[in-house]
Design brief:
248 residues, alpha/beta, seven-stranded parallel beta sheet, 15% strand, binds acetoacetyl-coenzyme A, binds NADP nicotinamide-adenine-dinucleotide phosphate
């Protein structure tokens, strides 16, 4: 069998980098999607870093919140590699604010980057997966989509929406060898979490039974398993990886 192709949105970010590396280790040909305001040099520098660390990973530009830009990204990948067998919808942003202060712009930015993006990207690859009778879609949600979070009405709504999407699409494609799953990380040390004020982060960390924040690799291991042959019977599930912060 020829090498399977994985596209990871937000692939050059904190969790995305770990996912790309794990999928490459598992034998996938991996493409990291990036946006970075169109800063291609930054993405190339990231690619060089991965190469130096022993990982050969391609990069593809696209703003996943924009349907046309998402299409150009996926079209480019399919033209170069023939197909996308595994899509990891990992791109995301926060625009935290208490609801009474939240602007429509903050709401829309988060809904578009975190949820509309999932529609934009998945619809471009799902038919190819159905034709191949094999595919993996993994959606990166959040513990805060499961429990809610002070200051994140927009983000929690988008992340909870991702799992509704997962469960619906999973039912539609299960009979054709395509699985769709959600992974819900807790607080993982990346630039997204580093943006939280120190005092607030300390308080949040104190609510994690394992006693520390998570590491990007601890998310990537599970994504890689869900993307594997062995996970063929897991679909429509939501895997919580949060150090015990939220159990249900
Ligand atoms: N619970 C209850 N009350 C709280 C509170 C909490 N957790 N945090 C603050 N408050 C209270 C304050 O005591 C204050 O009360 P008074 O008005 O009575 O003095 C009031 O709320 C402050 O309200 P403001 O609207 O002025 O809030 P702010 O501007 O100071 O801060 C915030 C709001 C920016 C959202 C800040 O609370 C914050 O950064 N919270 C962290 C949110 C968070 O966890 N983000 C996660 C980002 S990483 C990520 O998202 C990854 C992932 O998936 C896990
Ligand atoms: P990060 O380092 O900030 O990575 C986020 C990535 O998303 C960046 O690579 C960014 O790309 C990309 N992105 C954002 N908007 C985009 C857009 N419009 N188009 C294309 N790419 C876009 O943060 P992270 O912590 O690794 O987050 C990765 C995912 O995990 C997010 O969905 C986040 O919500 C989720 N998550 C994180 C945590 C955590 O604690 N860190 C917990 C739960 C869930 P550019 O930088 O190139 O713009």
């Amino acid at each position: 069998m020829s090498q399977r192709v994985a596209l990871v949105t937000g692939g050059t970010g904190g969790i995305g980098t770990a996912i790309c590396r794990e999928l490459a280790t598992a034998g996938y040909l991996v493409i990291a999607g990036y946006n970075s305001g169109g800063n291609h040099d930054k993405a190339k520098a990231w690619q060089d870093e991965q190469r130096e660390a022993g990982y050969e990973i391609d990069v593809a530009y696209g703003d996943v919140s924009d349907a046309e830009s998402a299409k150009q990204c996926v079209d480019g990948v399919v033209a170069k590699y023939g197909a996308v067998h595994c899509l990891v919808n990992n791109a995301g942003i926060t625009r935290d604010s208490t609801f009474r202060k939240m602007t429509l712009e903050q709401w829309d930015q988060v809904m578009n980057a975190n949820l509309r993006s999932v529609f934009n990207m998945t619809r471009l690859v799902i038919n190819g997966m159905l034709e191949e009778k094999w595919g993996r879609v993994v959606n990166i949600s959040s513990v805060n989509g499961q429990k809610g979070q002070f200051g994140q009405a927009n983000y929690a709504a988008a992340k909870a929406g991702m799992h509704g999407f997962t469960k619906s699409l999973a039912q539609e494609v299960a009979a054709k060898g395509v699985t769709v799953n959600t992974v819900s990380p807790g607080y993982i040390m990346t630039s997204m979490v580093a943006a939280i004020g120190d005092d607030i982060l300390e308080k949040i960390a104190s609510t994690i039974p394992v006693g520390r924040l998570g590491k990007p690799e601890e998310i990537a291991y599970t994504v890689s398993f869900l993307a594997s042959e062995r996970a063929a019977f897991i679909t429509g599930s939501n895997v919580a990886i949060n150090g015990g912060q939220h159990m249900f």
